[in-house]
Amino acid sequence: MNDYLRMEPSVSSNVAVASQAARLIRDWIEAGTYPVGSLLPSQRDLSEQLGISRTSLREALSTLQGLGLVVARPGKGMYVTEAPEASAGEAWRFADSHALTDVYQLRFALEGFAARLAALVVQPEDLTLLQANLQGMQQCIDASDFLQASHLDFDFHMQIATISGNHAIADVLRGSGEVMQESQRLPFYKRGARHATCEEHAAIIDGLAQGRPELAQQAMAAHIVQAAQRAGVHFPTGL
Fold first, then answer.
1. Which of 44, 110, 134, 238 has the fewest CB atoms within 10 Å, measured from its CB?
2. How far apart are CA 191 and CA 12, in angstroms?
3. Is the pLDDT of residue 129 over 90?
4. CA 45, CA 186: separation in Å to the nearest integer?
5. How far apart are CA 77 and CA 71, in angstroms?
């Protein structure tokens, strides 16, 4: 293992450091350096190997835990639970320009409020379109067509932003469409939770159908936080 990062002095973003560290540890797991069931080195040893702070390492390990690749066992350490799927394609393509955490935080800030506004004005025909979208996404997930599922996911959120009547929010989401859609693709690769997005979308539709702004906002906020966690991102919300 000679691929030490030694990069923290030259990289200002702790998020970028943690992301690169998580990627490198993941590579080690995939290469069999740390096989399934093995104990990772201590945080002190890992941070020294990678040339990063304990804080950045903990963020990296949190990301790997969110992906289900490692698990913490109290009093023992961090163990590898499974190897990455070779076909998963979970790398964040926009790491050079947008931290994935920032994207989810932006969505959390905007989309919950959009859902709240939408619940006040939603019409039966809007709900019909959202239900059709949900059914189409379910079919794509069943067929493991995660790319098309992410297209439908993006359309679902854009429909709600449009229903809300807040053109500024809709324009922000639409203007960052490629980045937003990529953030929506990643959660589908979380093994054991691939239908979670559909379940969460159904809860959002329920809040809208009841015409309850607070319920719709809470359902949207919960969905974005949980989707972020499936993508390996954890951030404080104050909820």
1. 238
2. 33
3. yes
4. 30
5. 8
Q: What tokens were used for 231? A: 């993508």
Q: What does DSSP assign to residue 97?
A: T
Q: Provide mean pLDDT across the span 110-119.
A: 97
Cα distances (angstroms) measured from residue 58 to each of 82, 155, 219? 19, 35, 29
Listing DSSP states for 167-194 in one string gives HHHHHHHHHTHHHHHHHHHGGGGSTT-T
φ/ψ bin of 37: left (φ > 0), alpha (ψ from -120 to 50), beta (otherwise): left
Position 89 scores a pLDDT of 43
- Give the pair of three-digit tokens for residue 52: 């990063």
Which pair of structure tokens corresponds to residue 203?
Answer: 């809860």
According to DSSP, residue 39 is labeled: B
- Decide if 68 contacts 82 (C-beta within 8 A): yes
Tokens of 109: 């800030």
